[in-house]
Design brief:
CATH superfamily of the largest domain: P-loop containing nucleotide triphosphate hydrolases
Low-confidence stretches: 240-247
Strand content: 15-25%
Radius of gyration: 30 Å
Strand order of the largest sheet: 1-11-2-3-4-5
Protein name: Interferon-induced protein 44-like
Order of helices and strands: HEEEEEEEEEEEHEHEEHEHEHEH
Structural class: alpha+beta
Organism: Clupea harengus
Distance between the termini: 69 Å
Length: 449
C-alpha cells in the first residue's frame, strides 16, 4: 500500500496490540477501507499471517488475527480475537480449539465463528462489504450483535484495516547503547586507559576481582584485556583449567600498556571458581576475605579449609592497596537461563555483603558474540537476543541492567579485532569509572565527617 496512506491505528493502541504476540512482530498496512472505496482486493487473499482491525465511531477498536491463510473450512489453532484500547489489549482465544472453523467463503468473506464476520453481500442489488460482530460459544467475546455496512459508510463505522504480520528478527531498528565502531574510538579508549590515574594519589593501581562459575570466561577476560593492550592475542596459562572444585590460587595480573610497557592503573585478580550444582567452589567467607584484602598473593583456596588469621601471610590489617576496589561477576550469556539456584544464592549473598563494604559490583556477560547477528559484536547493542540475556543476567544477580557489560573474549583468534577491542575497552572504561565514582564519594564522605 502507498506509504502516504496513514493507518488509523494510533501508536498507543498499536503498542498494546503488539503485546498480544509471543514474539516481536511488525504490522504492515495492506488495506484500508476508507482509501480503497471498501473494495477488498483479491491479491491480499491468502497472505498471512495477518490482522483485521475494525474501528467504530464510538471509539471501540476490535479485530482478529489469523496465522494461516484461510481455506474453505480451514482450521487455525493460533487464531484469536481482540479488543484494544490505548492502555490495554484483551486477547480472546477460543474456548475449544477443536471447534475452530475459519471459513473463507467465495473470494472476500472471512468468518471467525459467529463472533467476527467480514462478508460481501448484495444490498439493494449492490455488492457491499459488511462486518458483523456477535458472541458465540467458540470465542465467548461478550460482544453485542452488530452489523455495519462498510461500503455505505454506516454512521457507527469508522474504518477497517488489514495488516500483514511479520517477525522482525533479532536486529532492532536502533541501538539501546550508542557506540562508534571505528579505529578512532578504539584508540581513544586505549589512550584513556593508559593515562588513567586513580583518584587517590597514594593508590597507583586498583584491584578488580573476577568471580564466577567454572568456564564463564574469567581468565579469558584477563588475557583479552592484555591482548587489546599488546595489539595481538596473548596466550597465558588458564588458571581455570582443571577439575571443578580443584583448588585455585589468588593470582593478580597487572595490565601493562603493551609488551614491556608501563603498568596501567588496573590489576585483575582471579580466584577459585564459584561452585555450581554439585561442584564445590570458592566459599563466601574466602571471597569476602579477598575483597577485604586479608588473603595473600598465591594463596591456594580449598573449599573445606577457609582462609583465616592462622593462614601463612594472612593480612590482619590490610591497607587500601591490598583491598579489592571492584567486583566483576562473570557469567556466560549462553547459560544465564540454566544456572542453578545454588549459584544464584551464592552470588546474591556475596552481593549483599560486598555492598556493605562499599565496593562497586558489575556483571560481565561473556560469549555475547554467539547471540549477535552474524556473530559480529558491532550488533551487540542492536541484538534483541543480547538485550534479553542482559536483562536476564541483571535479574539473576538482582542488579540494574546498566551494571551489565557484554563482552566477547579472545579464545581462538590469532589477531585482535577493532570492534571486539572496543567492546572490551568499553567494559574496562566502565569499571574504572565505577571505581573512581566510589572512591570520590568515600573521600567526600570522610572529609565531611
Amino acid at each position: 500500500m502507498s506509504a502516504s496512506v496513514i493507518s488509523t491505528l494510533d501508536l498507543e493502541r498499536e503498542h498494546q496490540l503488539l503485546k498480544l504476540f509471543p514474539e516481536p512482530v511488525r504490522l504492515h498496512l495492506l488495506y484500508k477501507a476508507t482509501e480503497l472505496n471498501s473494495t477488498f482486493p483479491n491479491r491480499f487473499h491468502g497472505v498471512g499471517p495477518f490482522v483485521f482491525v475494525v474501528y467504530l465511531s464510538s471509539g471501540v477498536v476490535r479485530g482478529a488475527y489469523m496465522n494461516k491463510p484461510p481455506t474453505n473450512q480451514g482450521h487455525d489453532e493460533n487464531v484469536f480475537l481482540f479488543d484494544v484500547t490505548t492502555t490495554n489489549a484483551t486477547k480472546i482465544s477460543p474456548e475449544d480449539d477443536s471447534k475452530i472453523k475459519i471459513s473463507q467463503v467465495f473470494s472476500c468473506n472471512y468468518e471467525f465463528g459467529n463472533s467476527f464476520k467480514l462478508r460481501t453481500e448484495s444490498v439493494s442489488k449492490e455488492s457491499c462489504l459488511l462486518v458483523y460482530f456477535s458472541s458465540d460459544e467458540v470465542f465467548n467475546t461478550g460482544w453485542p450483535d452488530e452489523c455495519y455496512n462498510i461500503t455505505k459508510g454506516d454512521a457507527g463505522f469508522k474504518d477497517l484495516e488489514l495488516f500483514r504480520v511479520t517477525g522482525i528478527g533479532d536486529v532492532l531498528p536502533s541501538p539501546w547503547r550508542e557506540v562508534s565502531w571505528t579505529e578512532r574510538t578504539r584508540e581513544d579508549f586505549r589512550e584513556s586507559f593508559v593515562f588513567h590515574k586513580v583518584f587517590i594519589e597514594s593508590l597507583n593501581s586498583v584491584r578488580v576481582l573476577l568471580l564466577g562459575p567454572t568456564g564463564s570466561g574469567k581468565s579469558s577476560f584477563v588475557n583479552s584485556v592484555r591482548s587489546v593492550m599488546f595489539k595481538r592475542t596473548t596466550h597465558m596459562p588458564a588458571s581455570g583449567a582443571g577439575a571443578p572444585g580443584h583448588f585455585k590460587k589468588l593470582k593478580s595480573s597487572i595490565i601493562r600498556a603493551g609488551r614491556g610497557g608501563s603498568p596501567t592503573s588496573l590489576t585483575l585478580c582471579e580466584v577459585m571458581a564459584l561452585g555450581e550444582g554439585e561442584s564445590a567452589g570458592l566459599s563466601v567467607s574466602d571471597a569476602l576475605a579477598v575483597v577485604k584484602g586479608h588473603v595473600p598473593e598465591g594463596y591456594s583456596f580449598q573449599s573445606d579449609t577457609p582462609c583465616n588469621s592462622q593462614t601463612s601471610g594472612y593480612r590482619a590489617d590490610p591497607g587500601i592497596k591490598d583491598r579489592i576496589h571492584c567486583v566483576l561477576f562473570v557469567l556466560d550469556a549462553r547459560k544465564i537461563t540454566t544456572y542453578d539456584g545454588d549459584l544464584q544464592k551464592t552470588i546474591r549473598m556475596l552481593q549483599a555483603k560486598i555492598s556493605d563494604l562499599d565496593v562497586p559490583q558489575i556483571v560481565l556477560l561473556t560469549h555475547v558474540d554467539q547471540l549477535c547477528h552474524a556473530e559480529d559484536v558491532k550488533y551487540v547493542y542492536t541484538s534483541r537476543a543480547v538485550k534479553d540475556k542482559m536483562q536476564k543476567a541483571a535479574e539473576f544477580v538482582s542488579m540494574p541492567m546498566c551494571h551489565v557489560l557484554p563482552v566477547k573474549n579472545y579464545a581462538v583468534e590469532l589477531d585482535t579485532d577493532c570492534n571486539n577491542d572496543i567492546l572490551i575497552l568499553s567494559a574496562v572504561h566502565s569499571v574504572l569509572q565505577a571505581i573512581d565514582d566510589t572512591l570520590d564519594d568515600q573521600c567526600v564522605s570522610s572529609t565531611v565527617e
